[in-house]
């Protein structure tokens, strides 16, 4: 690619030893040539890098020579592609969404989670999450799995939640066959050796300790509010393994659970970034007619119970005076979460509830995080900006296939718990009032943009495809969801709020609870017109 | 004129970059081959243009319905001196408090109603203001950004109010021991030089910075040739250039009195800082040597070396089947709660090191094995180690570009650091060109028998003396 005389010049330059006196003539010659080169190509060409000869010494500011010009992809509206879904003969669904790129995300989602553990010791889901991708029939250890994946630049991960278990692998597209075979192995044929289970027991104990130690109590509060709202059933069951069950769970218990819940009808193989036909072929090869390691699944004992919303209160007295892990002390706070029943994500009212959640917004009192993160939401404008002693007020929306929960988390100094509860109940009642035009538009736009921004990333698209196909059998594309969001009106919000306020409240409280009002008072406040707590007369303080 | 040199400099730089220097052919003589079949990269091209005032505009059209657009500036705490250290960070806080055209509430409401996210960050050498929004709102976003960067109003009243916010944020950061540790590492390693200053600045400056200081900072650093307007998402490059022409043409490119700020070299000093506090449950320790600068060709083998050492956290379920040797030892001997290898690269220097968190009885062992890992990098790195690290590094480089904001950030930083966006094919080729011998030689050059900089915070009684650790940086075996 270079002229022959230029090539010759370089070879002389490299062969010449500048220090040798005998080659003074050659040195002079090459210095002349170097000077010519300097004139032609400028200073950057002459600079010698410190690595010396032999190694590539091209600064990153200069393009590396010898690489053919890459052919770049051009975007041609592939994002509007439909999600293709096929159902195999054994009931397994295969869903895929095409997206350009060298990497793809493929995984198996299973309709199994902590809500199905009613007849088993709680915590199986937690164990399965940590045991994922350990030794299987084909791969002797996690090391072998990671080594195989590394050849394709891949990573693997498992996540369980209250109603879904997700095994996912992100790797190069050309490794699709290996990836699907690995997934099938990891899901259907894990060995669950005793030493692995023992190691996971330690990891689970460490995680439980970590949960109790950290200053941010949000996971604990989520557990408590679910236990309060759905007392003793389905989604109210604990997601993290309770300490007393850590030793009770072993291979036999796990197998009896897996036999009932890991059946093809309850599974979806989802993929993003690959062709549908390829994925279906791999699924037929690796997931059809595979005998799982716990024997043929008979699925006799499947828990099909519907979540029963009960409402109620769960309290945990805990000393929060010294939770900081660093040298700066964190003030002592009491955390409360008050929730009401919303609706499942299969119903039409789900979208108005999502818009309502966005409208309430909220966050930490220190800072919203900059413009755009909800500084004009109700919880900021009405609560945090007016009452500077509140540390936190955030609204959350949890939704499952048969029920849902809209809750508000607030935290403040223990002496102001009563005022804090009253402010939150007043906010709930005001939700039933009419929403401002601008406020509603803003919430709808923010929800749409949050949806689109989250769907930029491939793992999120994968989870979206998988979960939708698992629960409904089809997938609503993002622009369809945006249209549904745009059609929400103020009367929709009013209607869903009125329905919500009729349900019994669920309350979770953590910390110093001496000033906490009783559950009956909170219930009375939420059914009253203005949301105020009933007056109590304190004769003895 | 110096100012025009500054402007022309970037153009010359670009011309030189395009020319292929014949010395670079020495690659062919090297051990690794760089032949590479023409391949479909799977990512769109990054297009770069420039305005007359020197502002560079770079964008990548990925076809998403959302986009991220922002301004990346070559300004940071390294450009500050003792008196105005923290001005950049303070300015980041003031940026969203209103401009001449949009007072604070109007700005916030506009952003919120668009459903956009407006953010900023300041580091030692870069400052960025960026906005995530839907693609159809791109023109409005560029207008708001141009306003925020060029005509920040800087009210006296707002400045006073932000002082307490900045002080409170400093207090919160003090609680994050990992950040404190890595910050102190810079203070130790680059002591007495501008790189040693923290981005947040001392609290006395937060209390005393005046409006004039902030105005001076803007006028000496926010100049068009040092800025890049980067965008990623469903962005059309020509449209973006048009928008930039209408909003950013007024950006100045001349310095007052032609005083172009020049970065002085920052010397690295092997040193240590110990903050013993037996009341803390865990000790945070970081040890580093001087590494490669951001555009140095040595940085790729060093990144591979760091991928060999890897990272670990107690909550990883993998146990003793992790690929990094240090991680396996950490699990088997229960040495630490977490560790990570890092490389912070600046324009003419860098910090390459390992940071770990452990309890007070295992510090000595963990430090021994950490330095052992470094010595292994210099002496006994094997083919399989390098192949694994190459795969992991390539996967992480590509995997990080997941979404319009990371891609936009990548574009902005690449243009500021290298003057161009390095395509993934080139990263792949550079990483593939790394051989075990290269890793050993280059690591020896940077690590072997060098004085490290070290920081330790917490219950660190067990940490050996500095001279012991200095002797851990070489082996007497050969």
TrEMBL record, chain A:
Gene3D superfamilies the UniProt entry points to: Metalloenzyme, LuxS/M16 peptidase-like
Predominant localisation class: mitochondrion
Organism, scientific name: Xiphophorus maculatus
Keyword Transit peptide: yes
Family: Belongs to the peptidase M16 family.
Keywords: Membrane, Mitochondrion, Mitochondrion inner membrane, Transit peptide
InterPro entries: Metalloenz_LuxS/M16 (IPR011249), MPP/UQCRC_Complex (IPR050361), Pept_M16_N (IPR011765), Peptidase_M16_C (IPR007863)
GO MF annotation terms: metal ion binding
Main function: Substrate recognition and binding subunit of the essential mitochondrial processing protease (MPP), which cleaves the mitochondrial sequence off newly imported precursors proteins.
Peptidase M16 N-terminal domain boundaries: 93-242
GO cellular component: mitochondrial inner membrane; mitochondrial matrix
The Peptidase M16 C-terminal domain, residue ranges: 248-447
SUPFAM superfamilies, per database record: LuxS/MPP-like metallohydrolase
Subunit structure and binding partners: Heterodimer of PMPCA (alpha) and PMPCB (beta) subunits, forming the mitochondrial processing protease (MPP) in which PMPCA is involved in substrate recognition and binding and PMPCB is the catalytic subunit.
Pfam hit, one: Peptidase_M16
Protein's UniProt name: Mitochondrial-processing peptidase subunit alpha
Single Gene Ontology BP annotation: protein processing involved in protein targeting to mitochondrion
Subcellular location: Mitochondrion inner membrane; Mitochondrion matrix
TrEMBL record, chain B:
Keyword annotations: Hydrolase, Metal-binding, Metalloprotease, Mitochondrion, Protease, Transit peptide, Zinc
Domain (Peptidase M16 N-terminal) ranges: 56-202
Any one of the GO CC terms: mitochondrial matrix
Uppermost EC category: hydrolase
Main subcellular location of this protein, as a coarse class: mitochondrion
Compartment(s): Mitochondrion
Cofactor(s) required, per the database record: Zn(2+)
Domain of life where this protein originates: Eukaryota
Family annotation (InterPro entries): Metalloenz_LuxS/M16, MPP/UQCRC_Complex, Pept_M16_N, Peptidase_M16_C
GO BP of this protein: protein processing involved in protein targeting to mitochondrion
Catalytic reactions on record: Release of N-terminal transit peptides from precursor proteins imported into the mitochondrion, typically with Arg in position P2
Domain Peptidase M16 C-terminal: 208-393
MF term (GO), any: metalloendopeptidase activity
PANTHER family: CYTOCHROME B-C1 COMPLEX SUBUNIT 1, MITOCHONDRIAL, METALLOPROTEASE
Function: Catalytic subunit of the essential mitochondrial processing protease (MPP), which cleaves the mitochondrial sequence off newly imported precursors proteins. Preferentially, cleaves after an arginine at position P2. Required for PINK1 turnover by coupling PINK1 mitochondrial import and cleavage, which results in subsequent PINK1 proteolysis.
The family this protein is said to belong to: Belongs to the peptidase M16 family.
Descriptive protein name: Mitochondrial-processing peptidase subunit beta
Species of origin: Xiphophorus maculatus
